[in-house]
TrEMBL record:
Leader peptide range in chain numbering: 1-16
Protein name: Endonuclease_NS
UniProt keyword list: Endonuclease, Hydrolase, Nuclease, Signal
One example GO MF annotation: endonuclease activity
Domain of life: Eukaryota
UniProt domain DNA/RNA non-specific endonuclease/pyrophosphatase/phosphodiesterase: residue ranges: 161-400
Family indicated by similarity: Belongs to the DNA/RNA non-specific endonuclease family.
Species of provenance: Nesidiocoris tenuis
Pfam annotation, one family: Endonuclease_NS
PANTHER family, per the entry: ENDONUCLEASE RELATED (PTHR13966), ENDONUCLEASE-RELATED (PTHR13966:SF17)
Length: 424
């Protein structure tokens, strides 16, 4: 099978450094110096969270506003800017001093952007936090799917939640029904994600910070080889489990992102995806195989068109390879392993939708599909490796809603089916 990365004519998400940081491609206008490259200027080690004041004077998270073929920029010209470092005892470092937050404006000298704070000018990439910023899970009073609770994942700044992801989570056993976020294609360069800066902090540790979550069963205790093998053995037998389980060959249950970190351009935004309520146990061959291809196809289609998508990634069913279901906490049947993963994509402007469904464990035969597969008819790739990388099929919204009602909230999909417009 020709893999999607070849099908797109792209080798992964990272482009070469010679194209990624080509400043000659910066948007040209009179405020050129305040077009800040979100990879080059506000990445690196421990960057603060950037907010800008809207027309009503309210602080909002500052995201990319302009893009070129290979770069993405945040225009800070004539903006009131707030820099802050969420996290316990975290501070913004300003020279030899440390502050909770700082208001700033952008100035440009010879095309180079600086932030002016209390009359003093700072290079943007010199502004760092004392520690890596810490995202948080804010529990609402809103219920979902009967026994689920809506959580907002993001940052609390000046007594306001600035959330990037919404999840429907079952507190009792650590199961997340679905996560929802906005994938804004206009934030991404037209050909990829802009590459990676050499001194980025990299992936953070998966974590949880709200003490109301995972009471008595911290999830990091269960995503371990011995625990997973034991859980699988209890479901399918020791001999069968040992024949299929091999972490060195991607045969184990990974912490599978629901909202993918690569759907966000800013480093601090990506960190929000590493909260445990945004992951569920996912077979790594699938996670790094055809499910990853679904995420790449979605991202590149958004980038190619510049469209904004609501992406709702969900779980369906409880994996039961034989007569007993699989949970990582076998004693209490907590942290259940999903039977399937789903992804409902809604184009915000048109209400066009398509839904993907993927298996979450190797099987000898193709699964019984719960809806008519419309992938090929709408130019989405065919990804059907049931025995290894995952069997993926596409559903119309009507059939998805009928068969996977708990995997996503009801949304407006009245615009018809979303067609893949990316040409590679």
């Amino acid at each position: 099978m020709i893999r999607l990365a070849i099908w797109l004519g792209l080798a992964g998400l990272c482009l070469s450094a010679t194209t990624t940081w080509d400043n000659s491609r910066r948007p040209q206008n009179r405020n050129d110096g305040c077009n800040v490259d979100v990879r080059l200027d506000i990445s690196g080690q421990k960057p603060p969270v950037f907010l800008v004041a809207d027309s009503k004077g309210e602080w909002t998270l500052a995201g990319p506003t302009q893009r070129t073929k290979y770069n993405s920029y945040m225009n800070l010209a004539n903006k009131k800017i707030l820099l802050t470092c969420p996290g316990q005892n975290n501070k913004l470092k300003l020279g030899n001093s440390e502050v909770n937050e700082a208001e700033a404006t952008c100035s440009s000298t010879d095309g180079v952007a600086n932030l002016v704070i209390n009359g003093k000018s700072y290079k943007i990439d010199s502004l760092k936090c004392k520690e890596r910023v810490t995202p948080y899970e804010y529990i609402s009073n809103e219920r979902c799917n009967g026994d689920g609770t809506i959580l907002k994942l993001g940052y609390m700044i000046n007594n306001k939640i600035h959330d990037l992801i919404t999840v429907c989570h079952r507190l009792a056993d650590g199961m997340t029904y679905f996560s929802s976020h906005i994938l804004d294609g206009s934030h991404f360069p037209q050909r990829g994600n802009g590459g990676k800066r050499h001194d980025e902090e990299g992936r953070p540790q998966f974590s949880f910070h709200n003490r109301a979550l995972f009471k008595g069963f911290p999830p990091y205790k269960y995503y371990k080889d011995a625990v997973e093998l034991s859980a699988l053995s209890q479901a399918i037998g020791s001999s069968a489990a040992q024949s299929v389980f091999n972490p060195r060959d991607d045969k184990f249950f990974a912490k599978g992102h629901l909202s993918p970190n690569a759907d966000f351009m800013l480093e601090n935004w990506r960190d929000v995806t590493f909260l445990f309520v945004n992951v569920q146990p996912q077979w790594q061959e699938v996670n790094g195989g055809n499910w990853n291809e679904v995420e790449i196809a979605t991202r590149y289609n958004a980038a190619a068109t510049g469209k904004k998508y609501q992406v709702i990634t969900g779980t369906a069913g409880h994996l039961t390879p034989k007569s007993k279901s699989v949970s990582l906490d076998t004693d209490n049947e907590r942290i259940p392993v999903p039977e399937s993963y789903t992804k409902l994509i809604r184009e915000v402007d048109t209400n066009k939708c398509i839904a993907f469904v993927s298996t979450n464990f190797p099987q000898n035969d193709a699964p019984a599909m719960k809806c008519r597969d419309i992938c090929a008819a709408n130019k989405w790739p065919s990804l059907k490796s049931a025995a290894k990388e995952g069997f993926v099929y596409c559903c119309s919204y009507e059939e998805f809603l009928k068969n996977f009602a708990e995997s996503a909230p009801r949304v407006d999909c009245s615009g018809g089916v979303l067609v893949n417009e990316n040409k590679g």
